[in-house]
Amino acid sequence: MRDYSREYQQKLVSAEFAASLVKSHDWIDYGNLTGQTVAFDQALAKRVNELTDIKIWTILPQYIPQVMEADPEGQTFTWHSWHFSKWDRRAAQQQRAVYYAPIRYSELPRYVREHIEPIDIAVHQVAPMDEHGYFNYGPQNSHSQAVFDRSRLVIVEVNQNQPRCLGGYHEAIHISQVDHIIEGNNPPLPELIPAAPSIADKKVAEYIVKELYDGCCLQLGIGPMPLSVGQMIAQSDLKNLGCHTEMMVDSFVDMVEAGRITGRYKTTDPGKLAYTFALGTQRLYDFLHNNPMCSSYPVDYTNNVRVASANDNLMTINNVVEVDIYGQVCAESVGTRHISGTGGQLDFVLAAYESRGGKSFLCLPSTHTDENGVMKSRIVPILTPGAIVTDSRTVAQHIVTEYGMFNLKGKSTWQRAEGLIGLAHPDFRDDLIKSAQDQNIWRRSHKR
């Protein structure tokens, strides 16, 4: 077997040297999720007064970027995110130089290869090199290979704490494709712990779990509602479930350990949990490390509607912000206040409906409390002005609140209005009916 240690040493550089390669007007990719650069970022932040017009790409950053902390006015660095994280949201609300790039997540590798400006330098955190000369991307396959394919300089930042996530494909890069190696300071992977499920979350989960059956294939998003669904499935008597998802979360570990997921009846990747990235606790990262049951893929595979829908009985479960009485779904903003991106929600809404026996569930509590302590309905006459339509009224299927579930498919405007108003909190139903009448989409049914 070839020994790559000499080549490794020849390419090994300090973070300061790597940061010195950045020139004014460069485009830099900072890596994704828990693979975001840390040591290089710290070194580049020290050059804030030496450079101008540096543009940075990332997606769902889990570390606070030091370049942006060093440059709060955005005089040197401009941050571009394919999907907002908690830090992104806060920075954008402070009107800092942080911008969202709208995407349909399944198309992101193609965007990178064909549509964005060429990348000057890409720096990603990776797992230590294996005996074959490969650096594994860890739990963020996503579009990593596309970024390195498009970049003029390829730099990897080694973190001993990155799990080795088996593929699939495009889960690793060979040392022959790498220009420089940084041995980082090995930070622990950031953990994402969802809020505890509310009573409404648990009720929504109950409605959804009743729709599941042995052998179905699951996609879960992040948040208390999908967490509740996973926990209930783990405690159920469902058997031989599958997993084909964008995001791997702790709930899948619960279901595997409870014996609910085997992947036995999957069409694609039978016996495997297929995913493109993972965010959760250290327990999840430990579960993924060198686990042959788990298969990491680029997002244009996991989120490809044809690939995902090839699995019969695909059940997709995602959170949304609000739904209007036409069935338009917003999962990205409160009015013009940006919360997150489209991500893969639309991909899996489409895939579930195309799947034989599949169903998509879009979940939300019926109300929220605003900053003044006033309860507001999430089922609304029209979307809040400025709200982003994530799922158009023509593609959304099952809408679920703690008051029930309604299937929009095949329903006229008045049927949709009636069904969706029935999912609203009772205190808001009369006003919603009045709005439906004013919009000429109300006809009370004669159901007995």
Description of the molecule:
With 448 residues, the protein is α/β, with parallel strands linked by helices. The protein has 2 domains: 5-183, Glutaconate Coenzyme A-transferase (3-Layer(aba) Sandwich); 199-438, Glutaconate Coenzyme A-transferase (3-Layer(aba) Sandwich), CATH 3.40.1080. Helix content is 28%, strand content 23%. The protein contains 16 helices and 27 strands. The strands form 7 sheets. The chain has an 8-stranded parallel beta sheet with strand order 1-10-8-6-2-3-4-5. An 8-stranded mixed beta sheet has the order 16-14-12-11-17-22-26-27, sandwiched between helices. α6 (108-115) packs parallel to α7 (144-150), α8 (199-209) crosses α9 (224-234) and α15 runs antiparallel to α16.
* Count of structural domains: 2
The description of the largest β-sheet is: 8 strands, parallel
CATH class value of the largest domain: Alpha Beta
If you consult CATH, what is the topology of the largest domain? Glutaconate Coenzyme A-transferase
Number of helices: 16
Helix content: 25-40%
In the CATH hierarchy, the architecture of the largest domain is 3-Layer(aba) Sandwich
Identify the overall geometry: globular
Q: What is the strand content? A: 15-25%
Radius of gyration: 23 Å
Total strand segments? 27
List keywords for this structure.
about 450 residues, alpha/beta, Glutaconate Coenzyme A-transferase, 2 domains, eight-stranded parallel sheet, about 30% helix
